[in-house]
Design a protein that fits this description.
It comes from Methylobacterium iners. This is DUF423 domain-containing protein. Helix 1 (3-26) packs antiparallel against helix 2, helix 1 (3-26) packs parallel to helix 3 and helix 2 (32-58) packs antiparallel against helix 3 (63-89). The two termini are 18 Å apart. This protein has one domain (3-118). By secondary structure, the protein is mainly α. It is elongated, with a radius of gyration of 15 Å. It has helices at 3-26, 32-58, 63-89, 98-118.
């Protein structure tokens, strides 16, 4: 597994970890519904990032575009879930428009995943 694949896999694991921690915190925090949403996004996307990383590492998809799509998911999650969590836990946004920007990045990332799935693999 290449360095970028290891980094993406580690970030996916971190997303899973933060999703579990966020879910637990949501049960005990005011604003729990917002934090729960952030945690769910992290938990839903962590396996997708791991899967894309595995596809790229195994040569099942084109490595470069697949890694870009996975990295875009990481960026979108950071902005979207990070902003929601900051609003609840620190009572301040990450930065203005962080969550909507992260949501748009996530949508674009999923479109990139669809494109990657359609690209023929070079042998």
């Amino acid at each position: 597994m290449s360095g970028p694949d290891r980094a993406l896999a580690a970030l996916a694991a971190l997303a899973g970890l933060l999703g579990v921690a966020g879910s637990a915190a949501a049960a005990h925090t005011s604003g729990g519904e917002t934090l729960r949403t952030a945690a769910q996004f992290l938990l839903f996307h962590a396996p997708a990032i791991l899967t894309l990383t595995g596809f790229a590492a195994a040569g099942l998809t084109r490595g470069g575009p697949t890694r870009v799509a996975a990295a875009a998911l990481v960026l979108g999650l950071t902005l979207f879930s990070g902003d929601l969590a900051m609003r609840v836990l620190a009572e301040t946004p990450l930065f203005p428009m962080a969550a909507p920007t992260g949501g748009i990045v996530l949508i674009a990332a999923w479109l990139a995943v669809a494109v990657v799935a359609c690209l023929p693999v070079r042998r």
